[in-house]
């Protein structure tokens, strides 16, 4: 496989003629480049008017490779042939080099050019590209490729330093200006031969204008080139390989993509997300560009106006920057009624708002790059979880969150520089178990999670935020204008009368199962648990009547009692003969649930066995049942008219392995999470809780 490398444009702020004088000082030997052992001229010619100067040299380079590899190869140095075409009239130097040593096994081609800067004729641009094709090399092909890349990296860096060294030497010697070439009078009979030498094609030079080798990447328009200083200033330090990938992907987009070409910072994020694997990054970027075009994301900041309800209840906003100059976004998730927001504005509006936040984040990164004079390509997010409870486990909300994570991961990679999570409550590990599998591993490594007040003091927020910008609600002195959130009034919820949202409301309901509860005939669901420390989660809405919810554990699987035709098998599962404390035990305290309420909860199991989720009609305090109803009660309830309770419910089991794995990943995110993990997964106790969210 042929490997290609493309370096960015290097700019010397000196005239072309002075740079050429510095370049000639590199020959025949150059002490500043130790691997360059020397050179000799093989062929040299000039045009009649002296405008074109062709030089062909044989150059010897020392092999910087392990001794064993040099011994097997039987060489201590390699020979390259370099062909230079210097055109004083056009002010260009085109260089082509290829290896002679091991030419049947390895093919190395290098193309360089010195040209006048397109915007300043007193500056000089240098470009370099190379290709490497290792056909066979005594079984050391992979090692040779690494050595070649290392050598290329060193040459790129050292080459610029050497030219600058000789430029400074010339200036120190009093040579700061060299006149431009002017044509001398040429006899008429020599005009034809001179014209031939002026034509680079007549010299058969494989330079940037040639169709051979990797050089076509250099013939792009001036606006397509990347300056090395620009990369360092606006994009950050990149290795030559990374620079090459960026330039190649950029050129490919310019040649094939119809429409607006993404900025270099944007392209670089996709390369980083795919570890600079060019083909994978190109595929990811192309899919994202198609998505942006389909949803008109480029116009989002100009066209999107969030509903007034969202501006009031969405507890998120931008707040200065972190200690590294990254834009800082604050999200008070614990204070935000995610269920109420989704029911009031719909999932699509929330997604649009999240996309707008990401677009604004990229824009702020560009502004901070200019403001601070250094590359800033990502932002920091501070998430306050005070108030986070089981109501945030509402299943349609979780599904919407996972969808948003997927969209952001696919289209805004490497935009999150750091995620600071503070005041994480005990329920957080359950939420983390649900969402962490959908978060990229590289992104998870940027999470810093603090429980309780661990975010205060050394090792906390002061390590990442200046004291002057720490929000007042976290003990800082800076007034934060991020909305406080709060419960969204039910009167603002969408209804099926709004046809646009009818399908979404129906989709949310399909997540749940429906059940009816009669007096003496509860609805029960049996959940088999094979390993302790599995997590049972539940989410249900009371549509009619008042219900009492309980959670029981038993070591034996219940057998369904008799039921009338058409009655669901998931109704009554237990027998009155069971004794509380002997055949079964209550592991979740009874919870009274009123009509119209929504309840979310979870339980970290202490033992394997069968767990029963039970909903039964709520009786007055003096008549509350203290044991499971019997078969006679069920049959009587089925045949007797009376009040009926209705509910929609959903439950899910998080496997012990997944839960423990999520705890481990949390602990690996930050050392500040140990207290929270200890209270959540204690070996001596089970942990359970339910919450009435509305």
From TrEMBL:
Stored Pfam families: CRAL_TRIO, CRAL_TRIO_N, PRELI
Family matches, as InterPro entries: CRAL-TRIO_dom, CRAL-TRIO_dom_sf, CRAL/TRIO_N_dom, CRAL/TRIO_N_dom_sf, GOLD_dom, GOLD_dom_sf, PRELI/MSF1_dom, SEC14/CRAL-TRIO_domain
Domain CRAL-TRIO: 306-482
Gene: SEC14L5
The protein, known as: SEC14-like protein 5
Domain PRELI/MSF1: 3-175
Higher taxonomy: Eukaryota, Metazoa, Chordata, Craniata, Vertebrata
Sequence ranges assigned to domain GOLD in this UniProt record: 509-653
Single GO cellular component term: cytoplasm
């Amino acid at each position: 496989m042929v490997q290609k490398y493309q370096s960015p444009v290097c700019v010397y702020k000196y005239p072309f003629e002075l740079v050429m004088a510095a370049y000639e000082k590199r020959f025949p030997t150059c002490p500043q480049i130790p691997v360059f052992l020397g050179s000799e001229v093989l062929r040299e010619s000039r045009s009649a008017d002296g405008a074109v100067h062709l030089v062909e040299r044989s150059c010897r380079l020392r092999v910087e490779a392990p001794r064993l590899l040099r011994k097997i190869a039987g060489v201590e140095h390699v020979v390259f042939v370099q062909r230079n075409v210097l055109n004083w009239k056009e002010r260009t130097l085109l260089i082509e080099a290829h290896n002679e040593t091991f030419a049947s096994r390895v093919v190395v081609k290098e193309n360089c050019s010195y040209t006048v800067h397109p915007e300043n004729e007193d500056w000089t641009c240098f470009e370099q590209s190379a290709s490497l094709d290792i056909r066979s090399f005594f079984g050391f092909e992979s090692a040779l490729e690494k050595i070649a890349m290392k050598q290329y990296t060193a040459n790129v860096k050292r080459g610029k330093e050497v030219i600058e060294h000789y430029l400074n030497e010339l200036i120190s010697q009093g040579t700061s200006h060299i006149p431009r070439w002017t044509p001398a009078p040429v006899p008429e009979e020599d005009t034809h031969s001179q014209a031939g030498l002026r034509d680079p094609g007549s010299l058969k030079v494989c330079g940037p204008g040639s169709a051979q080798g990797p050089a076509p990447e250099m013939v792009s328009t001036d606006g397509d080139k990347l300056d090395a200083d620009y990369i360092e200033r606006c994009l950050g330090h990149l290795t030559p390989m990374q620079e090459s990938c960026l330039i190649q992907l950029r050129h490919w987009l310019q040649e094939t993509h119809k429409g607006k070409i993404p900025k270099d910072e944007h392209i670089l994020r996709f390369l980083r997300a795919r570890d600079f694997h060019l083909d994978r990054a190109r595929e990811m970027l192309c899919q994202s560009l198609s998505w942006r075009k389909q949803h008109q994301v480029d116009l989002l900041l100009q066209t999107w106006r969030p509903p007034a309800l969202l501006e009031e209840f969405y507890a998120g906003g931008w707040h200065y920057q972190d200690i590294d100059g990254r834009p800082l976004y604050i999200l008070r998730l614990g204070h935000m009624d995610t269920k109420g927001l989704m029911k009031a504005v719909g999932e699509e509006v929330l997604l649009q708002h999240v996309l707008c936040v990401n677009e604004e984040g990229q824009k702020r990164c560009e502004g901070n790059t200019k403001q601070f004079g250094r590359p800033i390509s990502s932002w920091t997010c501070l998430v306050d979880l005070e108030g986070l409870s089981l109501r945030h486990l509402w299943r349609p909300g979780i599904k919407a969150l996972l969808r948003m994570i997927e969209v952001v991961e696919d289209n805004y990679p490497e935009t999150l520089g750091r995620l600071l999570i503070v005041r994480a409550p005990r329920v957080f590990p359950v939420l983390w178990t649900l969402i962490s599998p959908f978060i990229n591993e590289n992104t998870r490594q940027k999470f810093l999670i603090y429980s309780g007040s661990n975010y205060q003091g050394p090792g906390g927020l002061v390590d990442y935020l200046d004291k002057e910008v720490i929000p007042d609600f976290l003990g800082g002195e800076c007034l934060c204008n991020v909305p406080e959130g709060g419960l969204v009034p039910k009167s603002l919820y969408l209804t099926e009368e709004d046809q646009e949202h009818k399908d979404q409301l129906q989709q949310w309901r399909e997540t749940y199962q429906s059940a009816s509860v009669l007096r003496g005939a509860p609805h029960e669901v049996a959940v088999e648990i094979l390993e302790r420390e599995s997590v049972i989660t539940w989410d249900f809405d009371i549509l009619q009547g008042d219900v009492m919810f309980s959670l029981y554990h038993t070591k034996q699987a219940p057998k369904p009692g008799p039921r009338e035709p058409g009655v669901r098998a998931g109704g009554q599962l237990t027998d009155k003969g069971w004794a509380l404390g002997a055949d079964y035990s209550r592991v979740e305290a009874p919870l009274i649930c009123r009509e119209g309420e929504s309840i979310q909860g979870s339980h970290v199991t202490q033992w394997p066995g069968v767990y029963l989720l039970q909903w039964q009609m709520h009786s007055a305090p003096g008549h509350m049942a203290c044991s499971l109803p019997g078969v006679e009660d069920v049959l009587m309830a089925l045949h007797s008219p009376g009040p009926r309770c209705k509910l929609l419910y959903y439950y899910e089991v998080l496997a012990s392995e997944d839960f423990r794995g999520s705890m481990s990943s949390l602990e690996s995110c930050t050392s500040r999470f140990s207290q929270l993990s200890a209270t959540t997964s204690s070996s001596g106790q089970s942990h359970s809780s339910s919450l009435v969210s509305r």
